[in-house]
C-alpha cells in the first residue's frame, strides 16, 4: 500500500515511516500542506495521513483544495490532530470526504490498526 504522511513534525513523520515500512508498506512524506497537496495531485495514494494543524497551509486547507479539485473522493484521508476540535467538527470533515481521524499523541497499536483497516478496503 502507498501511504503519504503530511505533518510538520519530523518526529511524527519518522514514527509513521517506521511503522508503515515495518508493516511492509511504501511511505512518502511532506512536511507542509502545500507540498503534501502537490504530491496528492500528482500521485495516487492508498492512504493519506494528514495533520490538521500546520502553519501557513493547514490540513483543512488541503482538504478544501481537494474538495474544490473534486479529487477528495479518490483518497482515503485520515486526520491526525491534537486539537480540541469537537465531534461535530470531525463529523463535518467526514461528510466532506475524510475517512476518519486519530488523536495525537498517536498510539502505535491504534496507528497499525488504522493502516490495516484501510489496507483491507483496497
Protein model, in words:
- By secondary structure, the chain is an alpha/beta fold.
- It has a single domain (2-121), classed as Response regulator (Rossmann fold, 3-Layer(aba) Sandwich), CATH 3.40.50.
- The chain has five helices and five strands.
- It has helices at residues 10-22, 33-42, 59-68, 87-96, 108-121; strands at residues 2-6, 26-30, 47-51, 77-81, 100-103.
- It has a five-stranded parallel sheet, sandwiched between helices.
- The longest helix has 14 residues, at 108-121.
- The chain starts with a strand and ends with a helix.
- The mean pLDDT is 92.
Describe this structure in a few short sentences.
47% of the residues lie in helices and 20% in strands.
Shape: globular
The appropriate CATH architecture is 3-Layer(aba) Sandwich
Structural class: alpha/beta
User: Main sheet?
Assistant: 5 strands, parallel
Kindly report how far apart the N and C termini lie. 8 Å
Q: Which strand order does the major sheet show?
A: 2-1-3-4-5
Overall average residue pLDDT: 92
CATH topology: Rossmann fold
List the total number of helices: 5
Q: Helical percent range?
A: 40-55%
Number of strands: 5
What is the CATH superfamily classification? Response regulator
Task: Report strand %.
Answer: 15-25%
Poorly predicted ranges (pLDDT <50, ≥5 residues)?
A: none
Measured on Cα atoms, how large is the radius of gyration? Answer: 13 Å
SSE topology string: EHEHEHEHEH
User: What is the CATH C-level name?
Assistant: Alpha Beta
How many individual domains?
1
